[in-house]
Amino acid sequence: AEGAESAEVAIRSALARWNAAFNAGDASGVCDLFALDLRYYASGLPEQTFADMCTRLKTTLSDTSRTFAYSPEIHEV
After folding, report:
1. Is the pTM of this model over 0.85?
2. How many Cβ atoms sit within 10 Å of the Cβ of residue 61?
3. Residue 37: phi, psi to the nearest 5?
4. Of 5, 6, 57, 63, which residue is most buried, by most CB within 10 angstroms?
């Protein structure tokens, strides 16, 4: 149980850091959440990678004409 509790704390901490980085417009900090071997699928797009994710985040967060904010709602870890 103790290992599970420490894993939960680590996961919640990583998500909190990600949220703070995203809301601060810190694309590098946002990219730090993801594994370098990340592979994911978004609707209608081919397989995406870590580099794809970070490029998209950096482009999005560097758009000074828009303001972004994210507040995760964690139901269970």
Report:
1. no
2. 20
3. -95, 20
4. 57
Are 43 and 51 in contact by the 8 Å Cβ rule? The answer is no
β-bridge mates for residue 49, sequence order: 39
Burial of residue 38 (CB within 10 Å: 0-12, 13-18, 19+) is middle
pLDDT at position 1: 67
Beta strands in 1-77 (DSSP E): 39-40, 48-49
pLDDT tens digits for range 18-53: 999 999 999 889 999 899 999 998 888 899 999 999
Secondary structure letter of residue 48 according to DSSP: E
Would you state the structure tokens that stand for residue 40, as one six-digit string? 């994911």
Residue of 12, 9, 24, 8 whose CA lies nearest to 69: 24
